[in-house]
Write a structure and sequence with these properties.
By secondary structure, the protein is mainly α. It folds into 2 domains: 51 residues, no CATH class; 211 residues, Orthogonal Bundle (MetI-like fold). The protein is built from 14 helices and no strands. Helix 10 packs across helix 14. The radius of gyration is 23 Å and the shape is globular. The model has no long low-confidence stretch (mean pLDDT 84).
Length: 272
């Protein structure tokens, strides 16, 4: 009986997994097809012949390399800024005692329930008054801190024994040294998780570049991909090739750091 339940369970998990990965596999397959092969039935998973010209069009007809460079620039600096600021705030909420600490932390967490659409216009007005529209700095500033990042790191810092921090203070270590030399090395799994989550979020961000950027040479990969789609409306094979190119860095990062993501979520109390 137990064996039969296990078989049913794994079969159901396999079907659900296939349903989730089916669009991704279809996208990759379509990117190597000719237009006449896209909607053939049954689906031809391995195209015959294989068409590589779609990828040539992606890299020659539009400045995809420029889009890549712009996105990488924004993602790297936004991720670095968010990790540093979130880590310092999380340390303060976890290990520094001050009046109203829990209230302030609770109010800060409440901002996670506020949709970004509601602050979109005020945020744009601030960026506009700072004369930062049509600049990558506008995209970076909007990602420098997040309630999720602070919550993630704060939960991890709470697992570090207070005695360790108190011992450092007794030995004369400043708060900055305690934070940098004791807390941060302990939080490598959580930091890795935040780095990956933030990088993926910034890389996939579409709305902020759409609002702030006007010059094509400054487009990020998602905005550039949308522009590319508008130029090749009915050419699904070329569009899928461009989408695959946009996803490659994210896939590499996730596959390389999958273990760090899992460990960070477990140690930060986010699993389940």
């Amino acid at each position: 009986m137990k064996k039969a339940k296990n078989v049913i369970f794994y079969a159901l998990m396999f079907l659900l997994s296939f349903a989730m990965i089916f669009p991704f596999l279809w996208m990759i397959s379509t990117s190597f097809k000719f237009d006449s092969q896209v909607f053939t039935t049954p689906i031809e998973w391995i195209p015959d012949p294989v068409n590589f010209s779609n990828y040539v069009k992606v890299w020659t007809e539009e400045p995809f390399l420029t889009f890549y460079k712009n996105t990488a620039f924004v993602a790297v600096f936004a991720t670095a800024g968010q990790v540093i600021i979130s880590a310092m705030a999380a340390y303060a909420f976890a290990k520094m005692k001050f009046t109203g600490r829990n209230i302030v932390f609770g109010l800060y967490l409440a901002t996670m329930m506020v949709p970004w659409n509601t602050i979109m216009i005020p945020q744009y007005q601030i960026i506009s008054k700072l004369h930062l529209t049509d600049t990558h700095l506008a995209l970076i500033l909007g990602q420098l801190a997040s309630a999720f990042g602070i919550f993630l790191l704060r939960q991890f810092f709470m697992t570090v024994p207070d005695e360790l921090v108190e011992a450092a203070r007794i030995d004369g270590a400043s708060e900055g040294r305690t934070f940098a030399q004791i807390m941060l090395p302990q939080a490598k799994p959580a930091l890795a998780t935040l780095i990956i989550f933030t990088f993926i979020q910034v890389w996939n961000d579409y709305m902020a570049p759409l609002i702030y950027l006007n010059t094509k040479e400054k487009y990020t990969i998602q905005l550039g991909l949308k522009f590319f789609q508008s130029e090749h409306t009915m050419q699904y094979t070329v569009i899928m090739a461009g989408t695959v190119c946009a996803l490659i860095p994210i896939l590499i990062i996730f596959l390389v750091f999958e273990k760090q993501i899992t460990n960070g979520m477990v140690h930060s109390g986010l699993k389940g």
